[in-house]
Amino acid sequence: MDHVGLVHPNGHRALRQVSLRLAAGEQVAVIGPSGAGKTSLLRVAGTSVRPSDGRVEALAVNPWQLGARDLRRLRARIGMVHQAPPIPPRLRVVTAVLAGRLGAWSTGRALASLLYPADIVGARDVLARFDLADRLFDRCDRLSGGQLQRVGIARALYQRPALLLADEPVSALDPVLVDAAVGQLVAQAQATGATLLASLHAVDLALKWFSRIVGMREGEVVFDAPAGEVGPTMLHDLYAAEGAALPMQGSGPLPRVALDAPAPTTVVPLVRPGCR
Fold it and tell me: Whole-model pTM?
């Protein structure tokens, strides 16, 4: 992104002169108070919203210079994990997960998969990483909010996108499961070479799992730094308008990430006995 701005139809300016570059395969966390512009940033990055000004490239192409067909192909290579997954309630879990590949399938295969799921084994395998394999054929309206959010993450991982975007992906999860779910996103990106850009509410999660942190406030990038350089003063300044307490997932001191420390590469199991 080069000097990207975004003004909503109601006149609200969501992004102001945002410049941001991610290398292929890099994992970056975006943090900041409510209304900072994190969701708008991800929507622009995912080509679902055209910026009001500035220039955007996604996967080395300018999406707004493409024709409709090429734009659909580009979007098929971008995965999005929503805070509230847009999954039809009557859809079966297996179908919701397999929908991650619809952009890469022919129309015939996609329609056939609605009648009989095209890859039951693949859907079950990715759901097992989130302790949901036994809900494979359940309807999505029978799931809790946290389970539905995990299905949304599973769908994005099944897609295997080149660019993976996650907007507050664990906001509805049990605190015990949050850390492992973020670990799954990072592990998937590392295993497939995908670029990962995630907005997170909890500062400690961002510092633990990501080596680069982007801080946003009022639609602007306040800082863009290695996690090991993000100190308490920077964080308290970023969240000053929300009071003295930083948004944290756990308790205790903020984790410190050494600049030369290797990023975690192990796929973290998300199975907790008895948890559904």
Answer: 0.87
